[in-house]
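hey all, quick one before standup. I had two proteins in the batch that finished overnight and I want to keep them in one place so we stop losing track of which output belongs to which input. First protein below, input sequence then structure tokens straight from the run.
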Amino acid sequence: MLNKDKLSTVIGRRSRREAFTVAVAAVGLVAVAASSAVSFADDSVPERAAMVVEQAENIPAVGAAPAIQAIPAPAPQAAPAPAPEAAPAPDAAPAPMPEVKSYEDNLHGWITEALDIMAAKGIPGSYEGIHRNIMRESTGNPQAINLWDSNAAMGIPSKGLLQVIDPTFATYHVEGTPFDVWNPVANIVAACNYAAQRYGSMDNVNSAY
């Protein structure tokens, strides 16, 4: 059982709560009456009332948790496109092979090849001068040999297209040609090298030399 003091306290609290409720209701009645009175003078009251109701609806109840705004998830980022692979460098083109000049295996070809070698070595001479002396010395026969003159008597006969003796060929042989007195190109180049040293050029030779 409650004692008297506690009972009085509970009754007192209850009375105060009821009195507060009555006061709030009275204020509400006064507000409604005032709104009704104003509605006769102002046609826009319904619109205002609607606004008040709308605002009241938007006011959260006492103690209610605030609305949580949804945070949009970040849009997934597209994976970066892979970098294009660099095209392999083209293989370097092989260096062109030097052109190998071919010569006819005859008197014309031998003289032409000899002239090319002489030009590279700085030995003077012309096609006409070489051809003229060949025809006089061997008539164009690369195997011609003189077995009756003084050189032959000493055992060193003249040989080849321009009738060169072995000691002269050995002394005036030009590098890049075969070391063979019977080789037509080597014979011509060695003879022209000798003539250039003694006469200035094979072109200046018009008889036995």
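OK second protein, same deal, sequence then tokens:
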Amino acid sequence: MDSAPQVQHNSLPVGDISHTGFSLAAIKIQSGSVEELEQILSSKVDRAHDAYKHTSVVLNVENVGNLNSFDFLKLQDVCRAHDLFLVGVTGVINEDRYEALVRRRIPVVNSNRYARIREENLKPKIITKFIEVKVPVQIPVPYEVKVPYEIPVPAPVRIVRRNVRSGEKINGDNASIAIYGSVSTHARVVASHHVFVFGNVNGADIFAGAPKNDQDPGLEDAIIHVQGNFNPGVISIAGNYRTGEDLDNDKELSKVCAKKEGLVITLKDGNLNYSTLPDFRN
């Protein structure tokens, strides 16, 4: 009789989820039709059937125009007919396309879907302004100059007294957001000012200092404070992004989180900085 496999003492408990280094073959498509995928697999995969047999693949939909008519289930059937397992799509480069797929329960296997957005934010922006001056300039005496001024108005705080569910979006236009609970996977928290989470962040997207429009650079003085465990999908302050994949490899962040004293994220010179809550207060 076969005996049960021996369990190592350092193995993960049953049910635990960890990050892996598995890679998937990506098939780039143009129209997203069944006919197109059938032609690609017949010409590319079937010729090397033994090399691809029973492997998992994803479809790169970067060039697919209309994702609303994208029939993922039929494309899965085409892949199974060629002994492939279609597990999701990749190449999703903006939030609207990501939402269009997730609403239809199509898996997005795309850990750096914000990479292009982040690259655009890091590019230097050159602003050219032309001023026409007529010489000579006659200035009457006395001359009154009207100087515009702003009266600062305290930003309100939107308070959420519960856990934020998976897929839920919490907006704080012209406000900060304080959440007395945890934020679940695929949830989004977007605030024009600060974000405070007095619980855990598990796979959620957190945006603080979010720009209000194309002319607004966002609030660079905004902070993100997380009191519990910190494992986000994406974080951003004033349009400066870091993905969960980036954060997993950030040694500075790992040291701060290991202290279990609360995490504060700030922005300086375009870079996100991390500190414990006691260090931030000092």
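Flagging for whoever picks this up: The helical segments are 34-45, 49-52, 72-81, 95-103, 115-122, 244-248, 251-258, 277-281. The chain has a mean pLDDT of 81.
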